[in-house]
């Protein structure tokens, strides 16, 4: 976001907060249907895996969990479980989709090396979603990362 150079710090903070508020209001209408239940979340994962990962990532379970302090989501490849922070219930559907593709990819590739990102980038809005989540974390002063490096 570009801000006029002469804004004071207080004006700038006010403006950023206002923009975030407006953004959230307009984006809320486009929230993902997957926010409604764990079953809907799992169904969305099946669609995303089929579309972007050749159907190779098959989670055993995908669940909403209470907000985690440092992570948006987590994946345990050994038992195929994915957990998604309830902080993401209100983000736009394309951002949640990215988080799901990221965690689904961990079922295939542990860690965040080049092989991992090559697969994740099959999801076309990856870079935009990463930027959105970084902005959301920074604006809320949360310091949240996608997940733990596996
Ligand atoms: Zn990760």
Automatic annotation (TrEMBL):
Cross-referenced CDD domains: M48_yhfN_like
Domain called YgjP-like metallopeptidase: residue spans: 49-123
Protein name as catalogued: Metal-dependent hydrolase
InterPro entries assigned to the protein according to its UniProt record, in alphabetical order: UTP_pyrophosphatase-like (IPR053136), YgjP-like_metallopeptidase (IPR002725)
Transmembrane region(s): none
UniProtKB keywords: Hydrolase
Source organism of this protein record: Kutzneria albida DSM 43870
GO MF annotation, one: hydrolase activity
Gene3D superfamilies: Metalloproteases ('zincins'), catalytic domain
């Amino acid at each position: 976001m570009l801000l006029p150079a002469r804004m004071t710090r207080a004006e700038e903070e006010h403006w950023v907060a206002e923009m975030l508020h407006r953004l959230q209001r307009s984006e809320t209408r486009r929230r993902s249907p997957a926010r409604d239940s764990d079953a809907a979340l799992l169904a969305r994962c099946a669609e995303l895996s089929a579309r972007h990962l050749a159907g190779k990532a098959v989670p055993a379970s995908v669940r909403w969990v209470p907000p985690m302090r440092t992570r948006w989501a987590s994946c345990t490849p050994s038992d195929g479980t994915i957990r998604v922070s309830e902080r993401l219930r209100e983000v736009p559907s394309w951002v949640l989709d990215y988080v799901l593709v990221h965690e689904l990819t961990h079922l295939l590739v542990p860690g965040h090396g080049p092989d991992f990102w090559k697969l994740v980038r099959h999801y076309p809005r990856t870079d935009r979603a990463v930027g959105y989540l970084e902005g959301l974390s920074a604006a809320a002063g949360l310091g949240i990362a996608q997940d733990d490096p596996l």
